């Protein structure tokens, strides 16, 4: 059974930084993509960032572009989300998801229904 575990969340002041980690384990031949999504209380889950397995393609939500950076080490089945210049509206539970089967287009990584496995989430709270 594939497991996905996020870590690195916490409480940070406006303008601060956090780095989230995502570690996948289990019967994985290859990770075709890692995505980060978030869900704030009372809101729907939304896409944050995604990266293809090779690292050649990255995608960001407009709201985080220029502040967040996604990266991965596919040999270690691990990914990261570096979050800088955090804002109060970034407060949410952040979820990592992995895709372990081939995709038709890497842009599919922007959509949650293309992912095979999800972590339990890590809370990020940005205080003013």
Which helices and strands, and how do they pair?
Blueprint lengths: L2 E5 L2 E4 L4 E8 L7 E7 L6 E7 L5 E3 L7 E6 L4 E6 L8 E8 L17 E2 L3 E6 L1
Parallel strand pairs: 2-11
Antiparallel strand pairs: 1-3, 3-8, 4-5, 4-9, 5-6, 7-8, 9-10, 9-11
Number of strands: 11
Q: Given the C-alpha coordinates, what overall shape results? A: globular
Q: C-alpha Rg, in Å?
A: 14 Å
Kindly state the mean pLDDT as a whole number? Answer: 97
The H/E string reads: EEEEEEEEEEE
Quick one: biggest sheet?
A: 7 strands, mixed
- What is the first-to-last residue Cα distance? 40 Å
Strand content: over 45%
The SS-based structural class is mainly beta
Number of helices: 0
**In percent, how helical is the residue content?**
under 10%
Q: Which regions have little confidence, pLDDT < 50, spanning 5+ residues?
A: none
Could you describe the 3D structure shown?
- Strands 2, 4, 5, 6, 9, 10 and 11 form a seven-stranded mixed beta sheet that branches. This protein has a four-stranded antiparallel beta sheet with strand order 1-3-8-7, with no helix packed on it.
- A hairpin with a 5-residue loop joins strand 5 (46-52) and strand 6 (58-60).
- By secondary structure, it is mainly beta.
- It has strands at residues 3-7, 10-13, 18-25, 33-39, 46-52, 58-60, 68-73, 78-83, 92-99, 117-118, 122-127.
- It is globular.
- It contains no helices and eleven strands.
């Amino acid at each position: 059974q594939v497991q996905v575990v996020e870590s690195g969340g916490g409480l940070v002041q406006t303008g601060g930084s956090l780095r989230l980690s995502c570690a996948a384990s289990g019967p994985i031949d290859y990770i075709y993509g890692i995505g980060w999504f978030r869900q704030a209380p009372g809101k729907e889950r939304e896409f944050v960032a995604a990266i293809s397995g090779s690292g050649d393609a990255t995608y960001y939500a407009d709201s985080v572009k220029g502040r967040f950076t996604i990266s991965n080490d596919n040999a270690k089945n691990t990914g990261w989300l570096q979050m800088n210049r955090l804002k109060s509206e970034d407060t949410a539970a952040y979820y990592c998801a992995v895709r372990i089967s081939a995709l038709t287009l890497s842009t599919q990584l922007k959509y949650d229904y293309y992912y095979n496995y999800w972590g339990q989430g890590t809370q990020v709270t940005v205080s003013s």
